Amino acid sequence: MKFLQRERAALEEAMPGLDQQLADHSLMDLERAGGPGLAAFTEAGGPALLVPAEHGGSGASLLTAVRVQRAIGARSPSLAVATTMHHFSVASLVEAAAMTNGLEWMLLAAIAKDRLLLASGFAEGRTGQGILSPNLTARTEGEKVWLSGSKKPCSLARSMNLLTASVALPGPDGTPQLAIALIPAEAPGVSVRPFWGSPILAGAESDEVVLEDVEVPAELLVRTGVTNDGRLDHLQTVGFVWFELLMTASYLGAASALVERTLANTKVDAAVRAEAATALEAAVLAVEGLAASTEPIGQDALASALICRYAAQDAINRVLGLTIEALGGMAFISSADIAYLNSACRALAFHPPSRARMAAPLVDALAGDPLRIP
């Protein structure tokens, strides 16, 4: 049971050679804006991870995906965060396409074949709010659709091939109908503005994507047939469970980089090394247990995913305290890696929904009420 062996084996099987390529670069090189990580991920076939096998992808399970993201996060937190947003978009598209009988699977096949990177213009999760709806407005004339608005921060803003976004369009009877738009990055009216001012996770390219009256080609508009009812919430719930577990695994990977350094340092007391590894692995096992569940994804799974995520935040904070003190001042002074990982790991708390915001809804859900994300 070598530390990270299982995760790196999963990454090697899914994207041969990527782990070694990342290991050949310094952490600071991988984490800078424009670093080599995204190109290596794309070249290794990473965009196809969640595309079903019958459409040319790897068809990875949620369990495999969380192991892959942890392995990537241990090499490059920025790459793990950025690619989580790609996988979230693909998972949402797979779920939406399963509700239709159209040609949407051709889009998934293109993602796998052409190794396309998808940025997410979805807003993360408000049950009953429309669905994953960012600050975009739609203008329609017959079958033609134009979108305007912006998404910030938007990971993969500068490397994306497509921006995915949800829009509400008039259905056949006039009622709102969910559609998922795939917008080419080179489409007229699409631009990127600087937004991310921190050096932490700069490699995730989380800038602002702006749409100014961008026409969406009919073949890149997936009309799901889902209206503003319970099925709408189901589509959002599935995507949100994937998002929470993959993002949590990514940050557990970043914390794993510190634990790995601590385990390798024989000057650190064995009890401290074991405590750090145990705290981290317990959080990992919780995430993997939910990811491996065969129960259909629904409200209970979403509540469990949030509980796993908040428990992981606590575990990461504990691990940071143990490892940074154990590695010592000279390790902190001699390399930027320790301070960088300390800051990067804490960013899990910034992803929505916050722990404070979800406290009352989780208490209500544990009492048997439907889970709501305010």
Automatic annotation (TrEMBL):
Regions annotated as coiled coil: none
InterPro entries found in the cross-reference section: Acyl-CoA_Oxase/DH_mid-dom_sf (IPR046373), AcylCo_DH-like_C (IPR036250), AcylCoA_DH/ox_N_sf (IPR037069), AcylCoA_DH/oxidase_NM_dom_sf (IPR009100)
Name of the protein: Acyl-CoA dehydrogenase
Keyword field contains Acyltransferase: no
GO MF term set: acyl-CoA dehydrogenase activity; flavin adenine dinucleotide binding
High-level lineage: Bacteria, Bacillati, Actinomycetota, Actinomycetes, Kitasatosporales
SUPFAM superfamilies given in the database record: Acyl-CoA dehydrogenase C-terminal domain-like, Acyl-CoA dehydrogenase NM domain-like
UniProt KW keywords: FAD, Flavoprotein, Oxidoreductase
Source organism (scientific name): Streptomyces parvus
First and last residue of the signal peptide: none
